[in-house]
Specification:
Blueprint lengths: L5 H4 L11 H4 L9 H17 L6 H19 L1 H16 L5 H9 L23 H4 L16 H6 L4 H5 L25 H6 L22 H26 L2 E4 L10 E4 L97 H19 L6 H8 L6 H29 L6 E5 L2 E8 L3 E6 L2 E6 L5 H8 L8 H13 L4 H14 L9 H11 L3
Antiparallel strand pairs: 1-2, 3-4, 4-5, 5-6
Length: 541
């Protein structure tokens, strides 16, 4: 039969409600023999071990805890002496009043309570009076209402003072009933008006409303007027700048019947007076003081200019030379003897034809050496020299075969250098501390950037690259910031750049020619077929 009670597992009497440490092990209270106590503890623990499998787990755990607590109390000398002292004091107070017994029986049965030191329970505090709870001094509570005032209390709502038991304000703190003290008048609340049907309605005079002065909107009006004037001035200035100044012109013979608007042409600047032939002091000496030997060759010609003398008094204003009538102009000077009357224009001589010397073997060999030098610059990836050297080849006098090869070499150098320059332009768009996706979903942080270097951080690792050390995927991403990757020249430049780059040449050689074949005919002024042929000869397998 499984154990379902503590008395089945421990030697405790059924009548014992709160066993002490001695009673847990079946000993009498205050047992002085230590050997007997030790033997009882071993016996109880042996019984617990044997009945563990058949007993109720909850009851067994409770019994084990009770036995363990009692064992510690008995093995500790100090706790044991305290227990003995408590048992002795309990025997003295065993004959207490019925109130104590009733209190003890009403408390819940706790098997472990007897193991603790005994102490007197604290007395329960007295029930707080409403006056103490509300913080009222004693003696201020309202006395009982008389029967005669009950009807009045029913008709009138209870005020907070009557509910809390405090006298109305101004009332003396005496023991006289509240009915003898006249209550001070108070404004009726809406609730009291609603409940008291026959109570007079108090009239409250309306409050005076303060009239607010409206702010004048003069400032807004002036601001709007200023804006309109400024807009008109701007429109007028634009009109003046686009159409120019115009004035009203009245045609001659018009008495005001109409007005013609025409552009105001600036008046022609009057011609400057010609410098005098002499300085007015020495008649034959030039006004500039230049010696006779520096005169013009025609200065020795007789100074008979054939001008018609004119009376200065009759013509105070000399007519400008460009408006003089034809009969008043001076005749052309007479040419000296030995020269024709009118110089005939010299016959135009044909420009000497360029010397069409045939290409000599020495010239062909010299040009071939220059072509090979450019090819060597391209193989060595000399980015600074390859394009200028290839451009210089185009200025040489080459035969047809050499000219085609030089053009292809220039196209290779030009496209590759164009793509490499796009790397620098892409680096210029980056900022220190910014981020970009190396591939989709893999962001990197720009630690430091310059036109020739880039330092990035990826997975808490920092890497630095120069332009020529960047991996192909990184250069492709950076050039996309400055160049559309779908342009044919960008595609060809990328393929040739990887072909010329010494580090990526072997890996991308076959892909380069496939890419060049895919854009055949899309590059203007570039023969892609000859370019592929020259590229294969420059970088054979």
């Amino acid at each position: 039969m499984p154990a379902s009670k503590l008395s089945d597992l421990l030697p405790i009497r059924m009548s014992t409600g709160k066993p002490n440490a001695y009673q847990v092990f079946g000993l009498k209270s205050g047992e002085p023999d230590t050997a007997k106590i030790t033997a009882a503890i071993k016996r109880v623990y042996q019984t617990l071990k044997e009945s563990r499998s058949s007993a109720d787990p909850a009851v067994w755990k409770q019994a084990a805890k009770l036995a363990e607590a009692a064992r510690k109390q008995l093995e500790d000398p100090q706790q044991r002496r305290a227990l003995d002292a408590g048992l002795a004091a309990g025997d003295d107070t065993a004959g207490g009043g019925a109130t104590t017994d009733n209190t003890a029986t009403s408390e819940p049965d706790d098997p472990l309570a007897s193991l603790l030191p005994s102490a007197k329970p604290k007395s329960k505090p007295a029930t707080a009076s409403p006056a103490a709870v509300l913080g009222m001094p004693p003696g201020l509570s309202a006395p009982a209402q008389t029967t005669s005032n009950s009807a009045a209390n029913v008709s009138q709502p209870a005020t907070p003072a009557s509910v809390l038991g405090t006298p109305p304000l101004g009332a003396p703190a005496t023991g006289t009933p509240a009915t003898d003290t006249p209550a001070q008048p108070a404004q009726p609340t809406p609730a009291s008006v609603a409940t008291a049907g026959n109570a007079p309605i108090a009239w409250t005079p309306p409050k005076k409303q303060k009239t607010k002065r409206r702010r004048k909107k003069t400032g807004v009006f002036l601001f709007a007027l200023f804006v309109i004037v400024m807009l008109g001035a701007i429109v007028g200035l634009l009109q003046f700048l686009t159409q120019g100044g115009q004035i009203a012109v009245r045609p001659p013979g018009d008495d005001g019947g109409g007005i013609v608007i025409g552009n105001a042409d600036p008046e022609p600047e009057p011609p400057r007076p010609a410098a005098p032939a002499s300085d007015g002091v020495l008649g034959d000496v030039a006004a500039s003081g230049i010696a006779e030997s520096l005169r013009r060759p025609n200065d020795g010609i007789p100074a008979d200019d054939g001008r018609v003398p004119s009376d200065s008094n009759s013509q105070p204003d000399a007519m400008p030379s460009d408006q003089v009538p034809g009969d008043l102009t001076s005749p052309s000077p007479i040419p000296p003897a030995g020269m024709p009357d009118s110089p005939s224009p010299m016959p135009a001589q044909p420009a000497p034809a360029e010397a069409t010397d045939p290409m000599t073997p020495a010239n062909i060999a010299a040009n071939q050496e220059k072509i090979e030098a450019v090819e060597q610059l391209i193989r060595a990836a000399d980015w600074d020299q390859m394009k200028p050297a290839a451009e210089a080849l185009l200025k040489l006098k080459l035969n047809a075969q050499q000219s085609k090869r030089a053009s292809s070499l220039y196209d290779i150098a030009d496209l590759a250098s164009f793509y490499r320059g796009a790397i620098g332009r892409g680096l210029a768009t980056l900022n220190t501390g910014g981020t970009f996706d190396y591939v989709e979903g893999v962001p990197v942080i720009v630690v430091e950037v310059s036109p020739e270097d880039l330092t990035i951080q990826f997975n808490k690792r920092t890497r630095s690259f120069t332009v020529d050390e960047m991996p192909p995927r990184l250069t492709e991403k950076i050039t996309s910031f400055a160049l559309s990757p779908e342009r044919p020249d960008a595609i060809a430049g990328q393929a040739l750049y990887r072909l010329i780059h010494p580090k990526w040449r072997a890996e991308y050689r076959d892909d380069t020619f496939d890419v060049l074949a895919s854009i055949d005919g899309e590059l203007e002024q570039v023969d892609t077929a000859i370019l592929q042929q020259v590229a294969k000869e420059l970088f054979p397998k």
